[in-house]
Each structure stands twice: as C-alpha cells, then as structure tokens.
Amino acid sequence: MTLPPARAALRPTAGALRLVEPSSPRPSSVDVAAYVEAMTTWCPYLAPSVARGLTTWTVYRIVSDDAAAVEGELFHAGVRAAEWLRPLLPRSGGAFRCENVVVLGDVPPATHVRKLLAWPHWALKNLYAETGIMFGKFPAGAGGPSRAGKPVPPFSFLAIRAAIRRRDPGFLRPATPRLAAVLASGEDDGRDVFAAIGTDDWETVRAWASTLVPPLKPSPVPRTGSAGPSRRDS
C-alpha cells in the first residue's frame, strides 16, 4: 500500500536547522559506533538492525537563536522521518528499521537541546501512536552511564521506528497510560495524522499537544511523620 505523505513531510526548511548529512547508516559527521555498540545490550533489535544497514541517521545543526523556530523544524524533521518510514515498515525487515534525527548545537542563551526536543517529541508521539510508530527522545549528556547503567548519548537525537507491541506500551504505561493503550492497538491505515488538527503549522500543533494529558510524575515519598496522603494521592 502506498501511504499518502503528510503535508509537513514536504515542508521546506525555514532556516533554523541546517542539514549536515542526509540519512545514512554510517554518518561521517557524528561518531555513532561506540554509542550504538553500547546500546545493543539494552535493545535486542539494534544489533540485527545495524547489521542489515537499517539503522540510519540524518544530521542537522542549529543555526538560529530562535528557540520556537528550532522546535518547529525539529518537529517537521521528525514528521519527514516518520513519513519516509511508513511505507517501509510493512515490508520485509521493516521491524528493524530505525531512522534517527540528530541535532547538534544549542540555542543561546544556554538553552539545551533537551528542552528543544521536549515539545516536538510529545506532539510526534501522540500524532503517530495510532499508526504504530514509536518516537524516542535522547538528549546528549556529559559523564558516564545513567544510574541504570544505560549509556548517555554523545549527541541529541530523536529515534523513529515501528512500535514493538510486547515491549513499548509497557515503557509508556506508567507515565502515559492513554498513549500506551493507543500504541498497543495502533495500525497504519494510511491516515493523514494531521486530519483532526486541520493543519501541520507548528504553533497550532504545539497548542493542540498542550491540551493532552501530560506524563504523570511519580508521587514524592512522604516525609516521616506526615499527617496524611499528599494532594496527588487524593
């Protein structure tokens, strides 16, 4: 089945991001080898995906001080990646495909890419869950592995791939149970993911995303001698 591309998939750049390197399994502009090798322990699908050349990387660099413009272009870069993947995922080996959108640089004054990824990632996850596509957000970090031992990426990126039904909903359920349920039953029927919103304009999409139930945060551990449950427990 040929899937109609979303309107945003063909949107030209507005100048906030510069394409450094088009999609490639072996990018020359960023060193992915050590990080990917370390991550194979955490993702059983990664090693066979890399071996088949199905994990690819598109690299952008921030060239604007306008954080809102960068957010918008990151969002549309994610849409382009998802729309490129959609017709490929039902084919042989589709479950092993993963397109990664790398973003290099920060927006002054001292706006870390972690913040710039947040809203595009949230909007993309909710737009594409019904099509069975999973988005991951991986901000760059300094130092060694996380507390859980997972390696910290040396660059920030969004990962886009087919959802793994027996694993991914479980990852989402504690913080976003509604989204987990949608992803668990998602099937790509070729829909225009922007149909309900009526536009792919980033300001409108961001406003729509802000109306969705936000991720739940763990309740704080009550202090010793607390008189009762916190307001979150009521």
Overview of the molecule:
The protein is 30% helix and 15% strand. The protein has 234 residues and is of the alpha+beta class. The longest helix is centred in the first third of the chain and has 19 residues, at 67-85. The chain has one domain (7-205). α3 (67-85) runs parallel beside α4. It has 7 helices and 5 strands, in the order βααβαβαββααα. Strands 1-2-3-5-4 form a 5-stranded mixed beta sheet. The protein starts with 16 loop residues before the first strand and ends in a 24-residue tail after the last helix.
Strand fraction band?
15-25%
Average pLDDT, all residues:
84
**Classification by helices and strands:** alpha+beta
> Largest sheet at a glance?
5 strands, mixed
Q: For the largest beta sheet, what order do the strands appear in spatially?
A: 1-2-3-5-4
Helical residue percent band? 25-40%
Q: What is the CA–CA distance across the termini?
A: 49 Å
Give Rg in angstroms. 18 Å
Could you outline the blueprint of secondary structure elements for this entry?
Elements: E1 17-24, H1 33-39, H2 46-51, E2 55-62, H3 67-85, E3 98-104, H4 113-128, E4 133-138, E5 156-162, H5 168-172, H6 177-185, H7 202-210
Parallel strand pairs: 2-3
Antiparallel strand pairs: 1-2, 3-5, 4-5
Helix pairs in contact: 3-4, 4-7
